[in-house]
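Course assignment 3, question 2. Fill in each field.
Student: A.L.
Task: Predict the tertiary structure for the chain below.
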Amino acid sequence: MSRLACHFSTRLARAHALTRISSGAIQLLKSTQQPAFARTSLRFLATKANTLSAQYEKVYKSAEKATYAELDTFARRHFGPTPENVQHMLTTLGYKDMDDFLTAAIPPHVLVKRALKVQPQEGFTELSMLAHLHELAGKNKIVKSFIGKGYAGTHVPPVIQRNLLESPEWYTSYTPYQPEISQGRLESLLNYQTMVCSLTGLAMANASLLDEGTAAAEAMAMSFHHSRGKKRVYAVDEKVHPQTIDVLRSRAANISVDIVTLPLSTSKGVAQLKQIQKDICGVLVQYPATDGSLHNFSEIGEIVHAEKGLFAVATDLLALTLLRAPAEFGADIALGNSQRFGVPFGYGGPHAAFFATTEKFSRKMPGRIVGVSKDRLGKPALRLALQTREQHIKREKATSNICTAQALLANMAAMYAVYHGPQGLQKIAARVYGFTAVLAAAITQSPHTVTNDGFFDTLTVKLSGVSADSVLQQALEQYNINLFKVDESTVSLTFDETATKQDLQNLVTLFTGNSGAELPAELPQIPQEWLRTDEILSHEVFNTHHLETSMLRYLHLLQSKDLSLANSMIPLGSCTMKLNATVEMQSLSIPGFSQIHPFAPANQALGYKELIAEFEKDLNDITGFAATTLMPNSGAQGEYTGLSLIREYFRSRGEYEKRNVCLIPVSAHGTNPALAAMCGLKVVPVKCLANGLIDVAELKLKAEKHKDNLCAIMLTYPSTYGLFEPGVRELIDTVHANGGLVYLDGANMNAQVGLTSPGDLGADVCHLNIHKTFALSHGGGGPGQGPVCVAEKLVPFLPRHAFVDTPHATAESIQAVNSAPFGSAAVIPVSYSYIKMLGAHALPYASGLAILNANYMLNRLQNAFSVMFVDHSALKEAGVKHCAHEFIIDLREFKAVGIEAIDVAKRLQDYGFHAPTMSFPVAGTLMIEPTESENLEELDRFVESMLAIRKEIDAYARGEALGKVLKNAPHSLEDVVLTLQEEWASRGYTREQAAYPLSHLKSSKCWPSVARLDDTYGDMNLICTCPSVEDLAEEL
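Answer field:
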């Protein structure tokens, strides 16, 4: 049991043997006419999950007739296929019952069906779930936060909250790899990059990273690799945020880089830096510093550059609307958190980190980059540039964790800048500085001392005659204000745009004891020596949409250019684009969750404490493991954390240096090799057989060969080939027998829930993508969250945090893997709600239906396309009789007639669908993954689209004009409407065949807003900020 669980007043008991709920929850359920949960003895709990069709009908139709129970059950809203649809699909596949089908689809020794203990077992109804969430949120105390440390209060403009954060067209879209149906959010992300470049003074910026701490770690890694691994010292100013230094140390340890902290704002620190300058690969400073001070770091930049190191500056975007840009100090890299641009605290996230660099390092910069290119018609169009740098492509040669971003939050921050404009932002910044200056002046008239030299929004105050604890207590009890305790006699505080005149008056009184002190008539202005003199945010987009009407229409215009789940199924393999239910997503806007600072006192976050403990318990149950950490804020970061825990386990046994080999089958998730390399491990690949299964014989040979050095194996289960490996237990046993531990990638957990689990299979650790399996939205490329679940032997090593007592933290814990103690805590209620509304009885059907839907589609497509690896004639023990929750169709045979996978992918856009995952994990293929939330009608629409495309392929092979429609796909509205008839006639197919290949599209179609993009042009002519009209004219 976690320490966190031990210290809160239990609502739902931690013990698996008993099921309870608190009196508060019982009252809640009574008030909504929901039957209270019984305290069920273990002997009455089923030991096996019930996956019969009859049970599915009971789950689905539980509210079919009027009873005393509430009618708004969740399963029938979430699951796409009705019981009748299920029976139709089973019949199509030759089965009579869901249970029979699952028994045939999943190898016997894998199909465990351990009964889950998630409570309530029948699931909350939608309204009772909302009531429960509000009750939890109500246990968090909203206090005016002046804590700072990289997080600031902000006003989320309602037009952005309502029409972006809460809009399914924005939050259900996928990463914009298909640019023709992603131009809206690509434009918004380009705005974000342009904003960051303008404020930092640097030429290139990415489309966001996870958080400030991991952005700093990326700067460190970039510096290290820039030195070609020859310089293994990275210098950090001691006034960098402590949580950032923690993350730096955590990441640096795995690649054998030493983090050295120095007082770089002092002459002593500069002298110390000079002594080691030949050994350093780079330097990181904070501007403004964590204590609020301002310093000109030009000399630091000169020292670093003298030995060809990289100079990085962690900074603040609001401060940079007034202060001199990091580029003026010679910065090669600028990074930070864009949270204060209209994104709530959220108890630590999700927030978008920014990362900018000089043009020289544009191709080394981590993270996704939006670039300007052109389409087939020569029209300017946007795309993700330089994609070949991404982890799943570079695998073990990747140098950064660049498979992740925080797109939704970056879009919010960008729109905040668009809405306020440069003058609006500067007024906010001037007000923040003015408040800070007024308080600083007042404190000079008190016994206390402001210790920081210069400031923007933060003061550090050395107290006289009173302790820090007593000042914090007085601030809280008298004014409902939180300050930050630096030490026993020092506090700090950070102003933000939410501060009021009354807050300022209260703080003056707190520090001076003078309740009648008058505030100056005008706010002080920032000293000239710190002011930037260049123009900021000059592009038209930041100077146009300041009227709410204009802003609303701009947001709507952008979202109308994109395809999302609001339009159609997104059948991306290995991505699990399931329904993000409105009830779940509403939790993002509940103030009790969104308005809590991540470093708020624990007794002010009791709702989160309860939520986290219960969510952890459910994830332990689902995965079959002993404990969970919620700190990783992406799937890739979860992978990194899991491997770091394994490495720390071997460190505790004196085998850290010795055990440095990681076995990775070629069918593992694409990010696995990159993360293994980031953890300092040597990747040894393991081949797969022609049928897609791991070559067990080769694995045994390599495990035996490396038995003295074997650290781990990274398995994806089911594999990225869409197969339930029948030999998975043998693989796991082999690695254990040779001294290694087993990491099981949770990317495909949506095929396991309630049917099998990593723990039941014998693995030691897994991560989970809650933005896949547990219904968190993808947000157009983030946020994500990657909890890591571990076996008992790894519990002592779960990560600790600099400011917050995290669950399971011990003296052996690894250091923090990101800035916030619980990662993107504000999204936890989303996935928590998903689990709680389905409950133990319905959760297995989420996986069962996902598998059924995939096999139904496979069955309908297999006569038109070659399906890889699946062999219906095989015995069920072979693991290839059926696919898991996804399958791969092989398009390589059509290359002989001139058709490639990209032609099919682009043509699917004309049919109103996002393409499946293309050329991963096998080049020239499409990997298709429906989810349990798609209904039979949508599955059939996709199948009919693919069958129609097959006819077009045949037409192309025969030399018929209709086949050319594939090469010109997709067809934008502009193309169809404005292309001259003479030109169109030369194509040989009609406009209707291009735009409406199936009749239903005439009444419901998401149009690509541009024609097919020219990828090569975009990479060779890299433009990654908003271009002017003149720029476009020159380029195009």
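Instructor remarks: The first strand starts at residue 144 and ends at 145. Residues 1-44, 1032-1036 have pLDDT under 50 and may be disordered.
Grade: pending
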